[in-house]
């Protein structure tokens, strides 16, 4: 799976979770950049990512997810 494939899938997940069909992901995007990104939506986001990519993200890995780039990198590592 390429980085582009991961970003495409993630974009769909983000749009579903945040009910925003116009949301465009950026590598440096954080929770501060997305309206309504709360701790609850963060949990829903992680669960949706785990399901879509058929991976498990551990709590210590979640703590290191500071931006979209870090999430894409983690997914790429786990699906390799």
Description of the molecule:
This protein has 80 residues and is mainly alpha-helical. The protein has a single domain (3-79), classed as ACP-like (Non-ribosomal Peptide Synthetase Peptidyl Carrier Protein, Chain A, Orthogonal Bundle). The protein has helices at residues 3-17, 39-53, 59-62, 68-79. Helix 1 (3-17) crosses helix 2 (39-53) and helix 1 crosses helix 4. The protein is globular. The termini are close together. The model has no long low-confidence stretch (mean pLDDT 95). Residues 1-79 form the Carrier domain. InterPro entries: ACP-like_sf, PP-bd_ACP. This is Carrier domain-containing protein.
Describe the structure concisely for a colleague.
Residues 1-79 form the Carrier domain. With 80 residues, this protein is mostly helical.
Characteristic terms for this protein:
mainly alpha, 4 helices
- CATH H level: which superfamily? ACP-like
Largest sheet descriptor: none
| Total E-strand runs | 0
N-C termini distance: 7 Å
Structural class: mainly alpha
Shape: globular
Protein name: Carrier domain-containing protein
Domain Carrier: 1-79
Walk me through the topology:
Elements: H1 3-17, H2 39-53, H3 59-62, H4 68-79
């Amino acid at each position: 799976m390429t980085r582009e494939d991961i970003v495409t899938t993630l974009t769909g997940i983000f749009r579903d979770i945040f009910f925003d069909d116009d949301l465009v992901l950026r590598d440096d995007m954080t929770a501060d950049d997305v309206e309504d990104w709360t701790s609850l939506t963060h949990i829903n986001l992680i669960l949706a990512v785990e399901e879509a990519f058929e991976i498990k993200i551990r709590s210590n890995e979640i703590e290191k997810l500071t931006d979209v780039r870090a999430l894409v990198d983690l997914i790429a590592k786990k699906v390799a």
